[in-house]
Amino acid sequence: MPSQKQEFSFPGQTTDQLLVFAYGTFLALGWKPKYAGANAIIGYTPRSWNKYGDEIVVEANGEMMSVTSSQVHN
């Protein structure tokens, strides 16, 4: 399953703040959150007639956030 990962630094932010920002971003982009835990949020982009949705994983740890996008159905 092809995937892309990128890491970001947000000095002065906490893990909880980063996950709240990520959740709000999911909603603003029309992505469906499916799981939210202490350090991660997992959701899916919308599916269309010619494309499966992608799985988006946001992991936060302190001031660092990583975002991974993976194709679910190749």
Features:
74 residues; alpha+beta; five-stranded antiparallel sheet; 1 helix; 5 strands; 20% helix
Structure report:
The mean pLDDT is 93. A five-stranded antiparallel β-sheet has the order 1-5-4-3-2, covered by helices on one side. It has one helix at residues 15-29; strands spanning 3-9, 32-36, 40-44, 54-61, 64-71. The protein is an alpha+beta fold. The protein is built from one helix and five strands.
Write the layout of secondary structure elements.
Elements: E1 3-9, H1 15-29, E2 32-36, E3 40-44, E4 54-61, E5 64-71
Antiparallel strand pairs: 1-5, 2-3, 3-4, 4-5
Distance between the termini: 6 Å
Number of strands: 5
The total count of helices amounts to 1
User: What is the H/E string?
Assistant: EHEEEE
| Helix content, binned percent | 10-25%
Beta-strand content? 35-45%
Biggest beta sheet summary: 5 strands, antiparallel
Concise synopsis of the structure shown:
The chain has one helix at residues 15-29; strands spanning 3-9, 32-36, 40-44, 54-61, 64-71. It has one helix and five strands.
